[in-house]
Amino acid sequence: MLASTLVRSTVSTKAMGTTQKAPVNATTPLIALARRVVVTLGAMAAYVFMRNVPAPGLDLATFEELGGSAMVSVVTLGVGNLTTGALLVELAAWVVARRDLERRARLRARWVRPAALGLAALQSVGVVMWISSLTPTLDRPPFVPMLGAPLLVGATFVAGVALIALGLEAITRWGIGNGFTVWVVFESASSMIEIVRAEGFEALVVPAAIVTVALGTFALATRSRAAEESPSIRIPPSGILPLNLGVFAMVQLAAPLFAAALVVGAAALALGRFWHVGRGPGGVGPAHVWGALVLVAAFITFDLLGRDERGDVVWHAAGVLVALAAGIDLVAEIRARARLGELTTLVSEQRIDAADVLATRLRAAGIEVHLRALHHRTMLQWLGPYVPVEVLVPVAEEGAARAVLAGLGAYR
């Protein structure tokens, strides 16, 4: 449908005319970039600070004796409720307004945060109940002797989720990259540092192998398509779902069913092919199918290798792959902003192929484009509505870009 829409579109480079770019001071892009970097680093520094602020109402000495003082900070609940809330709202919006994209966007904007905070409230109740259950095994109560201490602890946990949401939104709006993309890179880097401290640098062998295979597969798939086959379906076309399903099947059903795990991955691959074929000029070619199968097989193997002597997972291949994609997105946005200056969001798109189509039309009209969080969302696919692909264009070219968008008509 998108491909046919492009054929029908009357917008062309000639119709648009030559785009006039306003002269920009050479230092302006770097200054704007520096401001965004400061915002991003400031938001993450605030998170690190809150992670070390204990939740009021708890007896910290008791938790330090248990070795669990790190789990009683203001931001104990993390981002899980935010991502789950976004996914639940997206599924509900898809049911209520399957074909009305604007209504789905309104539902998303209105209900994601209330849903996340509601989930956080439920989880905080569970955490407080668990803390209370420790009382019989402790020498003293886990809560400080004050009226309403458990309620204060639960409210603090919910407030922590709200503060994290505000920080991630600040990064998305005024910083570098999508807030969740920055979060993934930060948490992955923190985990890597901790593992290296505990296991030594030899622990980096498996993630280095994962990154090498991933980048090699991406490069081969990119070289295999003709230049006119743009937009292309990226590797893997169905995200990390085949990998997760394959690992689950193998871990739960034992290693002899490795072949069955690959079959599960191939089935999920077929699902990705079903969703993408015919939705753009590129389509899915043999390189995409074999490339995704290579990733599934290689990463299931890496999941077996990335375990310690006790059999516990040290490196999860899917996590490393998502972190790699998020890091690529951050580097790409830094380079784009350094080259193009301040960028503005033309549209926030949940459909990766649709964002590709729009980017192709904008580039054909001579307009520079950057797709924010493209690789991160490719890994997550429909599991990541909280990481939309934002189509960014230079501020000076926003008017011309919106004219191209309006000319696509049925695309929206």
Description:
The chain has 412 residues and is mostly helical. The protein has helices spanning 2-8, 13-16, 28-51, 60-66, 80-96, 101-133, 149-174, 179-199, 205-224, 241-253, 258-276, 286-305, 317-340, 352-364, 374-380, 398-407; strands at residues 343-349, 370-372, 389-394. It is built from 16 helices and three strands. The longest helix is centred in the N-terminal third of the chain and has 33 residues, at 101-133. The radius of gyration is 24 Å and the shape is globular.
As a whole number of angstroms, the C-alpha radius of gyration is: 24 Å
SS-based class: mainly alpha
Q: Could you describe the largest sheet, including whether it forms a barrel?
A: 3 strands, antiparallel
Question: Would you count the extended β strands for me?
Answer: 3
In the predicted model, the low-confidence regions spanning at least 5 consecutive residues are: 1-26, 224-233, 270-284
Number of helices: 16
| Average pLDDT reading | 76
Our estimate of the beta-strand percent is under 5%
Shape: globular
Helix content: 55-70%
Amino- and carboxy-terminal Cα gap = 11 Å
SSE order, one letter for each helix or strand: HHHHHHHHHHHHHEHEHEH
Spatial strand arrangement across the major sheet: 1-3-2
